[in-house]
Write a structure and sequence with these properties.
The protein contains 9 helices and 7 strands, in the order βαβαβαβαβααβαααβ. By secondary structure, it is an alpha/beta fold. The protein is globular and about 50 Å long. The protein starts with 6 loop residues before the first strand and ends in a 6-residue tail after the last strand. The chain binds NADP nicotinamide-adenine-dinucleotide phosphate.
Amino acid sequence: MLLRGKTALITGCNRGIGRAILEKYAEHGAVIYANARCPHSLDVLAGELGEKYNTEIIPVYFNVTDKEAVKQCYLRIRQERNQLDVLVNNAGIMRDALIGMVDDKIIEDVFSVNVYAVITMIQYAVRIMSRQNKGSIINLASIVGEMGNPGQTVYAASKGAVIALTKTLAKELCSRHIRVNAIAPGMIDTDMFRSIGEARMKESIARIGYGRLGYPDEIADAAVFLASDMAAYITGQIVGVNGSTII
Ligand SMILES: NC(=O)c1ccc[n+]([C@@H]2O[C@H](COP(=O)([O-])OP(=O)(O)OC[C@H]3O[C@@H](n4cnc5c(N)ncnc54)[C@H](OP(=O)(O)O)[C@@H]3O)[C@@H](O)[C@H]2O)c1
């Protein structure tokens, strides 16, 4: 029960890595504001997990790029609990294109979700965490944000930005005891990874030392650790979870 007594907000909980983090956080006793875009898509799951792990899961439906909706979510958290210990910026999108095919729409879409929204989410979280004089912010970066990958200029640049803002905010917020870390997954078995297609998947898996894709649960374990008091002296770190992947 590493997260008992903590309140967490997680974006993009309806599938993939976010869903795995949602379940692990529930298992560890956190009260969770669980975000998804599609109204009611988490209602049943939130009820089931809340009952199974004897905790409270509150679905909050909004698009992370909708600033007014984000604001309303934080107002609700302040009114209902006046506490936020953990923010997990998980929601993200990937749009692959070789440089000649990159257009403004791809850049705007990817940066809106992967970077702009992450900054907005953090701005509101910091207001609550500053008053508490503690908090943990966890951003989902990517191995390609550190290492680069052909055909992923825009996505890799957005995740590079996440890494830079993580390191910067860790320095800016340490006096308020707000820790800011990122997880940089390698290739994880989710819809996002599978969207690259069968041929590229095989070629990609050949570059993983462990010889297999990562499981969403393996990212969630790192997210539990970083949110917990076991990581009390860890900030500004980019935690690679990639089974020894060479890109
Ligand atoms: N899978 C990997 O190999 C891998 C590797 C490195 C990093 N990552 C990062 O890990 C995070 C999770 O990835 P994943 O593999 O779980 O991806 P995924 O299976 O594609 O799921 C993405 C999640 O983000 C949500 N989302 C996207 N845009 C949103 C928006 N505007 N507002 C609210 N929610 C939004 C999606 O909601 P909808 O269902 O409504 O679309 C979905 O819940 C992402 O930041 C990704 O970049 C993944």
